[in-house]
Amino acid sequence: MSVVYSVTAQLLAIAIAVLGAPLLTGWVNQCRAWLQNKSAPPLLLPYRTLHKLFYKESVVAEHASPLFRAAPYIVFGAMVLACGIIPSLSTDLPLAPAADAIALVGLFALARVFISLAAMDIGTAFGSLGARREMLVGFLAEPALLMVLFNASFLTESTSLASIVETIGGRDLAIYPSLAVAGVAFTMVALAENARVPVDNPATHLELTMIHEAMILEYSGRHLALIEWAASLKLFAYSCIGLAIFFPWGIAQVHEPIGMLLAAPALIAKLAVGGALLALIETLSAKMRIFRVPEFLASAFMLAVIGMLIHFLLGA
Amino acid sequence: MTELALLPIDWILVAVVAWLAVGVAGIVRPGSFFIVARVLFPLGAAIGLLVAVAAIAALVSVPQIAVLPLGLPGLPFHLRLDALSAFFLFLLGAVAAGVSVFASGYFRQGEGTPPGLLCLLYHLFLASMAMVLLADDAYVFMVMWELMALSSFFLVTANHVIPEIRRAGYLYLLIAHIGALAILLCFGVLQANTGDYTFDNMRAQQLAPFWASVAFLLALFGFGAKAGLLPLHIWLPEAHPAAPSPVSALMSGVMLKTAIYGLLRVSFDILQAQVWWWGVLALVLGLATALFGVVFSAIQTDMKRLLAYSSIENIGLLTVGIGLGLLFAGYRMQTMAALALTAVLYHALNHAFFKSLLFLGTGAVLHATRERNLGKLGGLLRFMPWVGWLALVGALSAAGLPPLNGFVSEWLLLQSFLFTLGLPGTFVNNLVPVAAAGVALVAALGGYVMVKFFGVIFLGQPREPALAQSHDAAIWERIGLVWLALACVLLGLFPAQVITLIDPVTRVLVGDGIGAKVALHGWLFLAPVDPGRASYSPLLFLVLVAASFALSFLLVRTLYHGRLRRAAPWDCGFPLLNARMQDTAEGFGQPIRQVFEPFFRIERHLPTPFDREPSYRLVATDHFWHWLYLPVAHIVELASRTVGLLQQGRIATYLMYSFITLLVMLVLVFR
Amino acid sequence: MEALLFVLGIPLAGSAVLALFGHRDGAPEINVAFSLATFIASAVLTAQIIADGPILVLQQQFFVDSLNVFLVTLTAFVAFTTALFARPYMRIERDHGKMTAPRMRLFHSMYQLFSFTMLLALLTNNMGLLWVAMEAATLATVLLVAVYRTPASLEAAWKYFILCGVGIAQALFGTILLYLAAERVLGAEGGGLLWTNLNAVKGQLEPTVIALAFVFLLVGYGTKVGLAPLHNWLPDAHAEGPTPISAVLSGLLLNVALYAVLRCKVLTDGALNTRFAGDLMMGFGLLSVVLAAFFLSRQRDVKRMFAYSSIEHMGLITFAFGMGGAIASFAGLLHMTVHSLVKSAIFFTVGHAAQKAGTQIMENIRGLARVNPTVGWGLMVGSLAILGMPPFGVFASEFLILTTAMREFPWTTPFLLLSLGVAFAAVLGKVQPMVFGETTVKPLAHPPALIPVFVHLGFALMLGLYIPAYLNNWYQQAARLIAGT
Amino acid sequence: MPALFTQLVNLFAALLLLLSFALLSQRRVLSLIHLFTMQGMTLVLSTTVMAYSTQQPHLYYSALLTFLLKVLLMPWLLHRLINRLNVRWDVETLINIPTTMLLGIVLVIFAFNLAAPISSLSASVARGTLGIALACVLLSFLMMITRTKAIPQVIGFLAMENALFFAATSATYGMPMVVELGIALDVLIGMIVLGVFMFQIREQFDSLDIRHLESLKEE
Questions:
Q1: How far apart are CA A115 and CA A214, in angstroms?
Q2: pLDDT digits over A87-101, tens only?
Q3: How far apart are CA D149 and CA C372, in angstroms?
Q4: How many other CB atoms are found less than 10 A from the CB of residue B627?
Q5: Contacts of B449 in chain A (CB under 8 A)
Q6: Nearest CB to C128: which of D171, D173, D182?
């Protein structure tokens, strides 16, 4: 009986992620437009974009290697798996043991490496430039994210996301200073990883500043669609990580189908708020020069480490 | 494995003798290229396999002892094959098999030393490494240790016409020898004036903490010199690129591990890891080494130097793990120590495979293009697909990406950091998170380095027109590469099984292991303590990613279409785009150079607007060379000049020396 | 008994014969033949000693025990191989016009006389005769050092003569004091100079006199051992004399001088029952090792460099004997053996290398391995062996010495570590480009004699990996003798 | 044994010391040789006295030997040498004479103090002589250090041999005959070798100034 529940929970989680991720992107864009007094694009625009791109034929450079064409699928797959193991609705996920927090970071790294390699594959100036910048962001963002997760792990003596959520969510509301610091770090990392202002601007193609867009410049058609989708999946995944660690309440515990019915609206609500907050941050902050980025991320890294030190000093 | 007529140790001795025989056979017809390449090296590879199999057998069987009628009177060669030796012997054999097969296709006519001599030195190198791992008394250990250094020295200087290579070899042998002297003194302490140099006796000695620490420090210095720990790493980026690629592969992949073996053997097995601050020392030293290595490898423009620095990084990570193990063992937390050591051993194995794979890959590239400078390579994936894709496997595992092997060991290492809560002492407790952060940073930078390595060599467009003619690796080389790549994948996918094999080794070292617990949770999942705490299943991981890959692929094809048009890359409206405009290796390293500015000693030459032919040159060198080695050399030179004044040719002065000596001694008698 | 007479008689007769025919064409062969005969005789003698223990013959004037018999064999052997090497070498020198017929005669007869004095010094039981033999050895070689008659060689010989003469005079004074001390115990007719008698009564000898005597003896014989700061004659003499002489000086003379010191040390330890002698020897040894190491790193002349390396190794051996104890003494004896084997082998290769390049300046000797691999690799392997690289015997002894020092006298190890490191850097850094790289040397008229080189290195290799039982027994007995246990 | 002999031996010993000082201070080569001869003569006399007083026959032989060698042969050789090479100049010293003398006196005191405990043990007639012998050795050592020409240096060397010989005869009852013979032989050969050298050096550097022999050094 419980197996059925857990399997359904798993499938549901993946399905919500894959289908709902563009919606989240759309929502963020809409909020941003409102905040900037622009006429907002329709909420479902991302879906239309994806449809259009899938429909178009994809143009590939002559000497593109198979790696170039495989990369979008790998990235997409990685993101799907990421969403599959992050407890968004329920902590009772059969796939969760496949990868714990560290493996999750590894998963993101895998995606990053492949997209960067694909970007270098064509051999245009932009591609390699973007790849370099992406790796620059990555080599600081990854350890920072890992340290954030470590904060939670030290707190709960576990690296498995499910049990982290269960432990923190299980306790009654308490303020963990280490987690608070880690939360700030996580926000900064999330901004950088999802190519948002102030680190990168998804809406620009200005070669001086662009990171993510520079890498995918050569992509078109279905490949581009997959990458865009993967990007929104990544945003979704990060939001879910944040919610799972810092606001775990409402996520269904083991073997309670009713809880799952409650969890869905809770998740949606939390995501809505989170998206709005993200839009707010993007509106309030200005894009920074590319070489400010390491400092930005380094400070995130430091914050995460300090969080751990605080934990060891205060024992909380 | 009892159905073997001989014990594993006998098999390994047979293999050693066979290796020597192969080498000697090579010297019989030194000129004959065919025999050496097509007969002897494959033979050596087969022997390597034998060693690996026998080692596996030894891992699961009781320690075995052999005594050879050689050595000093009263001190014959004691050999002992316990789990620790067996583990490293397996590493040696398996890697050597792949490298030898590759080498049989690699060595060409007319490159420096005649092939027969190379064959002799190469197999002498292998045999001496095997003997080092078998050694059970100080004398045979030292003899084989130095023999290893010597044979590799001659291998490094195989192409001795080039002065840089001679210099590299010189530096290598010098530092190796000084390290060996330190190890010698370490054994001198350990034997505690009993005149009995067997390791058994050394285990029996109850050294005072002071002497134990002296011994440990000497060992750390000696083995660190061989492993390339800061600040004794200086030889490594010189010697590894100088050697022929198979030799570089063996040196990076296996020889450095013998140093790790020695450190484990002395600090855990013989000294029983008594003092906790040893761990702190090793931890800090290792962390510094790892960061230094990875940062330097990020800015290299020579592909083999890049790999050499990355070896320094990995040695650093191993040392961090050892330090953690020492720390835990110092506080008698054996299980945790076992976890850390499992990570160390696992990573040693992984590094052996992927690093030799990468070095062999560079060897193939070198032969195809005669070019080591990353700035002159590129786009080779199209011309040499075999090397390219196999190198990709190596690069991904070196980058520590799931589901390949590099990730498993890094995962284990980070896990063992997460268990430091129980450690007493605020200092240690504050050190640990910082160290963990450092390890994470190093791992991420490792990813950066590998993207640079693979992307610049194999992706993009050829930076030189000549590259278009470069041919793929021949069959022998392919076999070698495939063997190593396969090992990387398997080690990545079946960690639980590997750890059950590592278990007896950690039992030798700290009397505890995690194999049982891991086996408890089945073959699919890797959960060192319990799944609720941490678990990882690379196989499932791979399956899931692949599944979603396939699913999305099929869906896209079915719901939409598979139309694809080939066109020229988009030139952003600038029609004269060419291969030279790609990001260079220097460019790719530039962010790191900016972020880690203080690490380097940079000499930059920028062109001015008025230059006739503007040129840009940037040399980033090692601070240690200028701050440590040159001063030492200067001091020695100064001292010898001072001493030289004694000998100024006048006989009266010489008589004066004798006279004064006489008087002084007479005073000594009657004081 | 007879064997002993042969051992001493053959070289004496040889020098007489060669004094007559030494300038003929066949002279080198005669030289080899006599040396071979001596070697055979000494081998027989050794066999007898192993068979029926120490002997004391000719009114106790000659005494053969395990300590000196192995040195006798070693001496005879190295003298023989050196003669083999000298055969083509001196021919080439003659072709180069550096040797004339009378000089060849001088060389050959003096060569035999030298080996006679060495053997006499080893075999005699009489401290006075020992002194006489040592002095005679100087006199026999001093003219050979000057045999080229170049200003440099004359200067070297002059320094050799004066410094060693003065030094040895101190040794004579020491001997007199020894006799003085012995006379009070043994009486005027008691054969107070016979080592066996002295050894028998060493417990009753007057400590102060013996201490004083040992000081003089150490200064005297130490000068010939080449202990710093009494070593100054050694590099010059080695560098300027013909290479066979450099080989025997390094390989034999130093050993014999050290043997004399050892005999005296045994008596002194017996008389004083303190570490006095040992400490002095350790001090000298350490000083020599350190100084020599730093000298090594500034040499330009190849023979001079290896002369300093001899000083370093003699220092190491003296240090080992100074430490005392069974293991260290064993190591010292082993080191004596392998050093004289390896060092003479090195001088053989160096001699040919210098002949090929027409110079002894190392900057001008390049890439030997290209033109003549055997010489090149011989030099390389020999240098590595002398630097203490296993599996050669030098490593075995250094292993024992260092490990013993680390526990008994830890304060000495930094010095040893430092100087061994510096020496390694110096010698390897100079030899490597000589052997490898682009070449500057040209082939020779006569085929070089390299069998001795590889025979020596082969023995050194064997001693590093496997020490035969009977050899081991020698070493053990001798070590017991020296360590006085 | 009668005190007379002891006094005689002591007298000769004092004479020997005196001669050593004279050697140390003397500039002219010819007179150096004369002094050396006188030293030898003193040695012979003291040896004979010892032999007579202690009834040791072999001391007579050694006295005879000394006479032949050190009184007749050596001086003759030296004379021939300086005639052949005609080097009869004054010898300038490295350190000026008075300083040398002062050093010498210090050495003598040092030697006496050194020998005091030993000579009290000496079984032989002449107790004080050992100290004197030691002093002579050190003095001739000093002489060798200070002289810049070859022949004076050699004379210093021979004087040292004399001192040693004196020590051998007076402090002990003389060395065994075989040793004596050996020593004598060595000294003889040494002289000859030296002579040969002198000529060689002469023909190479056309002078016997050993400051020409300073080229072999660590540059």
A1: 11
A2: 888 877 888 888 888
A3: 47
A4: 11
A5: none
A6: D182
Which one, of A147, A302, A154, lies nearest residue B429 by Cα? A154
- Say how far apart CA C400 and CA B137 lie, in whole Å: 13
Chain B residues with CB inside 8 Å of D216's CB? 649
The token pair at C131 is 């002194």
For residues B92 and D124, give the distance between their C-alpha atoms in angstroms, rounded to a whole number.
77
pLDDT of residue D125: 53
Write out residues 617-646 of B within 8 Å (CB-CB) of C. 636-637, 639-641, 643-644, 646
Q: Assess whether pLDDT exceeds 50 at residue B1.
A: no
Q: Are B65 and B79 in contact (CB under 8 A)?
A: yes
Residue C421 has pLDDT above 70, yes or no: yes
Considering CB atoms only, which of B644, B650, B663 is closest to D218? Answer: B644
C-chain CB neighbours of B641 within 8 Å are 298
For residue A31, the distance in angstroms to the closest alpha carbon of chain B comes to 30
Q: What is the mean pLDDT of chain C?
A: 89
Rounded to 5 degrees, φ, ψ at B601 are: -110, 105
Q: What ipTM score was computed for the predicted complex, to two decimals?
A: 0.90
- For residue A81, which phi and psi values (nearest 5 degrees)? -60, -45
Q: What is the rounded distance in angstroms from the CA atom of residue C362 to the CA atom of residue C429?
A: 11
Residue C283 backbone phi and psi in degrees, to 5: -60, -50
- What 3-state class would DSSP assign to A220? coil
Question: Which has the closest alpha carbon to A91: A248, A232, A284, A217?
Answer: A248
What's the DSSP call for residue C194? Answer: B
Please choose, from the candidates C230, C243, C7, the residue with its C-alpha nearest in 3D space to the C-alpha of residue C121: C7
C358-408, pLDDT tens digit by residue?
A: 888 888 888 888 878 888 889 999 999 999 888 898 999 999 999 889 888
Instruction: Count contacts between B and D (CB, < 8 Å).
Output: 39
How far apart (Å, rounded) are the C-alpha atoms in residues D49 and D166? 12
> What was the pLDDT predicted at C485?
58
The pLDDT assigned to B4 comes to 47
Preceding amide of B504 cis, omega within 30: no
Q: Measure in Å the smallest separation between the Cα of B121 and chain D Cα atoms.
A: 39
Counted across chains B and C, CB pairs separated by less than 8 A come out at 159
Q: Report angle CA A159, A165, A170 to the nearest 5 degrees.
A: 125
Helix (H, G, I), strand (E, B) or coil at D149: strand
Helix (H) or strand (E) holding C62: strand C62-64
The fraction of chain B above a pLDDT of 70, given in percent, is: 97
Q: How far apart are CA B403 and CA B386, in angstroms?
A: 21
Ramachandran class of B401: left when φ > 0, alpha when ψ lies in -120 to 50, beta otherwise = beta
What pLDDT does residue D122 have?
A: 57
Helix (H, G, I), strand (E, B) or coil at B300: coil
Least trusted range by pLDDT, from A195-199, B283-287, C33-37: A195-199
Q: Does B591 touch chain A (CB under 8 A)?
A: yes
Whether D206 has its CB under 8 Å from any CB of chain C: the answer is no
Per-residue pLDDT of chain D (219 residues; tens, 9 = 90+): 567 877 888 888 889 899 998 888 887 888 889 999 999 999 899 888 888 887 878 888 888 888 888 888 888 888 888 887 777 666 666 777 888 888 889 988 888 888 877 766 655 555 677 888 889 999 999 988 888 777 888 888 889 988 888 888 877 777 777 778 888 888 888 888 888 887 888 777 777 776 777 777 776
The strand pairing partners of B618, in sequence order, are B604
Instruction: List CB contacts of A96: < 8 A, sequence separation 6 or more.
Output: A85, A87, A160, A161, A162
The single-letter code of the amino acid at A7 is V
Instruction: Tell me the three state secondary structure of residue B339.
Output: helix
CB B252 within 8 A of CB B237: no
Residue-level pLDDT at B536: 87
Q: Identify the closest residue of chain A to B533 by CA–CA distance.
A: A158
How close B174 gets to chain D, by Cα (Å)? Answer: 25
